[in-house]
Specification:
This protein is mainly alpha-helical and 69 residues long. It is built from 1 helix and 2 strands; from the N terminus they run αββ. Strands 1-2 form a two-stranded antiparallel ribbon. GO terms for molecular function: heme binding; iron ion binding; monooxygenase activity; oxidoreductase activity, acting on paired donors, with incorporation or reduction of molecular oxygen.
Length: 69
């Protein structure tokens, strides 16, 4: 991340309130994307310079996900 406070991202909490399942959740997402992309080798994520994120307090999520076929 290129934000000054990028390491203070709060999706999984911080300090004593840190989510103990954060590694599991990250691994599940990585595996899910790998499985989704496996049957379609010609499909890939598009590179766009300025992704827009939803203005949701407790979740950092993209407004759009650009996929190239």
């Amino acid at each position: 991340m290129d934000r000054k406070n990028g390491r203070q991202y709060l999706a999984f909490g911080r300090s004593i309130d840190f989510c103990i399942s954060n590694q599991l959740a990250s691994a599940e997402l990585r595996i899910a994307f790998q499985l989704l992309l496996m049957p379609l080798p010609q499909m890939s994520l598009d590179q766009w310079p300025n992704p827009e994120f939803a203005a949701i307090y407790h979740v950092r999520t993209l407004e759009q996900l650009h996929i190239v076929f």
